[in-house]
Amino acid sequence: MTSNLIIKPSLLWFDLTHDRSTSELIAQFESTCVCRLAKNSVLPRGEQADMICIHFDRPDTPGLRLLLEIKRTSPTIPITMFTLQHSEELAIWAMRSGVWEYMMLPLTTIERKRYLTAVIQLCELRRNAHNQGTTSLIDHSPTLPDSIRLTSGHQKHQALSNVMLHIDRHFRDSIDQRDLAKRCGMTTFRFSRLFKEANGLGFTDYILNKRMSFAKQLLDNSQMPITSIGYEAGFKDPSYFARAFKQFVNCTPSEYRLARQLRVTVSAEFTLDDTTAEVLDSLVHSL
């Protein structure tokens, strides 16, 4: 006995196009489905197709009325509506009329594969309907458009994506916020507001944060003079670097380096127990 799993879905097609072009559309499904064309656009009595496919190029009143009549006379057979002429009103009408799937033409490869997968799942479910102990979910929802699926946070990052890499590479240089705004096609005010919403910091604070993190890395891992570190981090005034560093880290660059060296020295001499480590951490942060 042939397994239901290898039986191809049966599609009954109605050609309601003005140029009778449905055969070209059917050709896209013949390798996967058994396709038949309804003669004279009449539903055969006792039809047992897995899917009724109605093909429009430019839907008109008689064609849409025929769809409703088919839906009324064969309520157990799902209907797919293929249309070349698309409108929001038509899509809403199809949804309210109980159309199982609404497909816009021409079909993309992704859309055709998605639709065929859903039809095969539906076919198997219908042919095994006698097995009441199992349920199956059929996912025939299309992929969400980028403009809908992206959160506002993603959209904000997307708008700034052209300049964030530039900022991360050149934060030690002089960067003009107005130039960056122009790169994004924004006013300076909008850029500033959007930048803070996307990054949690204003533009100036973001640059300062990057520079301070870089300065701390140099203090931790080099013996460079502190003045040179300030220059390397993008500060042109050594005294301003010292003041900004203390405000940012709660200690001067010299104190930060001394505390770091002290911790490294102590750690090298003996293994700290938890209590000693906590005391030393407290000392470092209090400097």
Question: What does this protein structure show overall?
Answer:
By secondary structure, this protein is an alpha/beta fold. The protein folds into three domains: about 120 residues, 3-Layer(aba) Sandwich (Rossmann fold), CATH 3.40.50.2300; about 55 residues, no CATH class; about 80 residues, Arc Repressor Mutant, subunit A (Orthogonal Bundle). The protein is built from 13 helices and five strands. Strands 2-1-3-4-5 form a five-stranded parallel sheet, with helices on both faces. Helix 7 packs across helix 8 and helix 12 runs antiparallel to helix 13. It is elongated. The N terminus is likely disordered.
Helix-strand layout with pairing:
Elements: E1 10-15, H1 22-26, E2 34-37, E3 51-56, H2 61-73, E4 79-83, H3 88-96, E5 101-104, H4 109-127, H5 146-149, H6 152-170, H7 177-183, H8 188-199, H9 203-221, H10 226-232, H11 238-249, H12 253-269, H13 274-286
Parallel strand pairs: 1-2, 1-3, 3-4, 4-5
Helix pairs in contact: 6-8, 7-8, 12-13
